[in-house]
Each structure stands twice: as C-alpha cells, then as structure tokens.
Amino acid sequence: MKKFLALLLAALMVCSLMACAADKPAETTQDTADPAQTDTTEQSDTTDEAEPEDTTDAEDTTDTESDLAYVQGKGTLVVGITDFAPMDYQENGEWIGFDADMAKAFAESLGVEAQFVEINWDTKAMELDGKNIDCVWNGMTLTEEVLATMDCSNAYCNNAQVVVVKSDVADQYATAEDCMDLNFAVESGSAGEEAAVAQGYNYIAVDTQADALMEVSAGTSDACIIDLLMAGAMIGEGTSNADLVHTVELTTEEYGVGFRKGSDLVAALNEFFAASYADGSMMACAETYGVQESVVAQ
C-alpha cells in the first residue's frame, strides 16, 4: 500500500511539472535582435523616401536664356538713356537723336519696339543687371569701368571731353593747366567727371550734362566738362547757350552700347551696325544730327 501511494505521488508531480511548462509563454526574440539588422531596416526606410525634385535643369534654362530671346519674347527693347542732345533728346514728346533713331531701327530689325527709359547714369550697370533696361545707348564712353561691368558693342562714334566756358573769357583758358583755378560742373559718373579727377580740378557733380551747362550759363560754376558731340549741338551761335564755347579737349574716346554680361544682343547689334554702315543708313542718320564726322567705320 505504501509502495502504491509513493508511485501515485510521483505521477502527480510529473503531471504538475508538465502543466507548468505548457502554461509558460513563448520567449520572443525582440530583445535579442541583432542591432545591425535594425539599423539596416531603418536606413532602408529612409532610402525609400521620395527625394526632392532636381530643379537644376530648370534653373539653368532660366539663367542661360539668351537676351535676344528674352527681348523678342516680351516684344520690347528697353533702352536706358539720359537727355543728351544730339544723341538722345525729346521733341514734341518723342525721343529722337542719333542714338535714339539707331536704337529704333535696331529694335525694328529684331521685330520689337524700342522703349526709352531715363536712368541715373551712376547706376546704369545696376539697371542693366536688374533687367530694368536691356541696354545703355546714350553716347556712352567705353571706359575701363564700363567694359568691366558690361559687354559692349563695337565703337560707333569718336568723341572727346571738352572744357566749356563763357565766350568772353575763353582766351584765358587755352590749355588744361590754364583751367586749374576754375570751379567745374560735371555729370555724375560720366567720362567728364573722370577727366576732372584726372586733371585734379575742383568740381561739383550734377545729374546730367545739360545741368552742367546750366551751371555755367547761370554763373554758379566757372566751367563744365561735357562731350564734344553735345557741345557741338548745344552751345554757340544758333543755340540757347550762344554765349558758351568749348576750348580744351582733355581726352579722346569712343562710344559704344552696353549690354548685360554674356548677352547675345552684342553680336546682333554689331551685325546691324555693319549692315547699316554698308547700306549708308547709319551715315544718313548721322547727317540728320550733324555727327557724321564722328562716325566710326564698321
């Protein structure tokens, strides 16, 4: 009987152990997962995310669009000018002059319309780069500064910077040295201002060459420095400044038309200049404004 009870207790213990083993939850492998495997999965998820669209090509297309296409697309050639006879000036509300008429003809050759905008001469390069204008076409001297900030056409006119004084004292100022004690007026940012600086003259800067002439006429400045071409049209007998004359030529120079750096309008204008010189239309326009002797052969 004792033996039987011992066997029964042993059997019950075995059954109990088996039941406990069956009730124990299965162990998970989450805590023992390989960290490297986890990182790979996360990297894979990141890689599969949509990458930002590459807009480089679109931006390059905008940045490298030709100026010629830009001008023809909008239908206008915006020309930066100042009031500067005989190159650009108004008559009956219309801009005329050698430069203005040639700009109109060039615009027509491109199939667009010339539109004239008066600018501050000091900020002409900024006006170009900001696309407020498409070119500077205003008897612009091809100085080192201009050539550094713009791409320019071939020279089309010769010019000089000259001293203008009242006719009753002109014989006293026959040389650059004679003018050292004069007080000058010059257009701000112009070749005339550069000439004044180079000579060491005392001067004030005004907005335009026309304003510089007015200073001399009014007696508020002793002299001014302006372009020879302007002097030919604006002073002396038959003009509103009949009592003014020019004396010393301080510099000799050339005019060109300025465009944005890299502009393909430069080549287009050079071709137009060559064609208009060859067919005589450039010289005919120059004769209209009395500047034919200054025209440079193309």
UniProtKB/TrEMBL annotation:
> Which intervals hold domain Solute-binding protein family 3/N-terminal?
76-293
Q: Which PROSITE patterns match?
A: PROKAR_LIPOPROTEIN (PS51257)
Q: Where is the composition biased (Acidic residues)?
A: 45-66
Cite the residue spans of the region called Disordered: 26-67
Protein origin, superkingdom: Bacteria
Low complexity composition-biased segments: 26-44
Q: What is this protein called?
A: Transporter substrate-binding domain-containing protein
Alphabetic keyword roster = Signal
| Entries under InterPro entries matching the protein | Solute-binding_3/MltF_N
- Species for this entry: Candidatus Avoscillospira stercoripullorum
Q: What is the lineage of its organism?
A: Bacteria, Bacillati, Bacillota, Clostridia, Eubacteriales
Specify the signal sequence span.
1-21
Extract the SUPFAM superfamilies matched here. Answer: Periplasmic binding protein-like II
